[in-house]
Amino acid sequence: MNSDGTATRVRSFTNMEWGLKLRWAPGERVYNSQTGKDNNLLKLSKNAPVLSLTHTLGFLDLKNIFNRTDFSVEKRFWLSAFGHIDAEVQAGIVWNAAPFTKLYVPSSNQSIFLTPNVFCLMKPMEFIMDKYVGLYATYYLKGWIFNRIPLWNKLNLREVLSFSGVYGGLSAKNIPGPASPGLYLLPDGCGPLGKMPYMEITAGIENIFEVLRIDYVRRLTYAKDLKGWAKNGIRISMRISF
Fold first, then answer.
1. 85-142 pLDDT tens trace
2. Could you tell me if 130 and 170 are in contact, meaning their C-beta atoms sit under 8 angstroms apart?
3. Virtual torsion, Cα 215, 110, 167, 163, nearest 10 deg
4. Which of 142, 171, 225, 233 has the most CB atoms around it within 10 Å of its CB?
């Protein structure tokens, strides 16, 4: 977008980023592979809280400077005989004006497979924001209900419920227009959230054949006038539980 309201097509761009990540998990027990990277950590215990703070500094086309900070906390909550809850809170902010490629877009997965901390029924790039807070929680009931049903309890099936939600906003400085020249136009169908957060819930059964999990997924908000897109669905995943 130009200052006179016209648009110029950009055929390519150059991007450079530097990032710093701090991770604190007091009391955590893990097995680490030889590479020593976070994605190779095998957690032996999830009782310890895990706090992560990430800051990214970047340059787009050597002129647009952007700063983004993200913070997350994850923790397992034991409920005695009622199972446990795995929860994670995420939050972040983009401090200055930046093209939409550097803003926060909630992750969505359009496949039939269930992915943790990813929305199942959100359109790709449906929402965009420069500040956000998200909550992802999964409640594993460990058969607390199924084990009380005669005959059904012989199947060793387990109940699982989950909730995913995100809320955020898009500042005027990051909305393309004559007042904020130099920003890329937003893709069609992409825009900020309204007054309500985006929310999804799932209800599923796990330990099917000891490895399979099947969930019913429901989109709770921004579904009234949704056309050509599913408001609910079925997702599957593989999970081995000891």
1. 999 999 999 999 888 888 999 999 989 999 989 999 999 999 999 999 999 999 999 8
2. yes
3. 10
4. 142
- pTM equals 0.87
How many CA atoms lie less than 13 Å away from 86 in the CB half-sphere? 11
* Dist CA 242 CA 239 (whole Å): 10
As given in the structure block, the two tokens for residue 62 are 């050597």
> Which H or E run contains 199?
strand 198-208
Other residues' Cβ atoms within 10 Å of the Cβ of residue 160 = 22
Surface-to-core class of residue 166, CB atoms within 10 Å of its CB (0-12 exposed, 13-18 middle, 19+ buried) = buried
Whether residue 51 contacts residue 24, with contact meaning beta carbons closer than 8 Å, is answered with: yes
CA torsion angle 223 229 230 236 (round to 10): -130
User: CA-CA distances (angstroms) from residue 2 to 18, 103, 179, 184, 209?
Assistant: 28, 20, 9, 10, 59
Q: How many CB atoms lie within 10 A of CB 36?
A: 8
| Contact between residue 116 and residue 122 where contact means Cβ atoms under 8 Å apart | no
Residues 167 and 136: beta-carbon distance below 8 Å: no
